[in-house]
Amino acid sequence: MLVQSRYEKLFDQGVELLDKKQYKEALNKFQQAIDLNNKFIQAWVYKGICLEKLERYPEAIQCYEKALEINPDVADLWYNKGATYCKMKRYGDALQCLNRVIEIEPDRPFVQTMRSMILEIPPVWSQPQIKPDREPDKVVENSKAAEAKLRLERNNQTYTNLQKEMERGD
Question: Which of 40, 43, 59, 70 lies 20 to 30 angstroms, CA to CA, from 7?
């Protein structure tokens, strides 16, 4: 019989609550597990996932950073951090994270695709939208930025759907 520590039990309870979409309650369990063992990477990661579900992205980033302090060579941690930066529209930071994923695990086509899509987003995207009565080149430039953003959002949605399927065990 396998004996679980108190922090592992709290973690398992948090995962069950997360599966039931009880994010605030799950967040509490993951925090309790961290309070007992602040080197427990999985608790930091799942706390970050809960915070993402609650759209508390900066706090989620902090959780991934804590997990990366414990082990900076886990590609999935860098990916989670990068995907969260994308949700925050901080594409430069996302790109740095995805580059790190590729350094650690070069054979991740999904990450390479996401990285390519981010690279298509021109710097204009962070500026206010240009009105149609301006130069045609600027409108085309804005249109490309919008298309790139849409592709990135679809990619993020695909990632979210895959993550849900994996959580359900499909």
Answer: 59
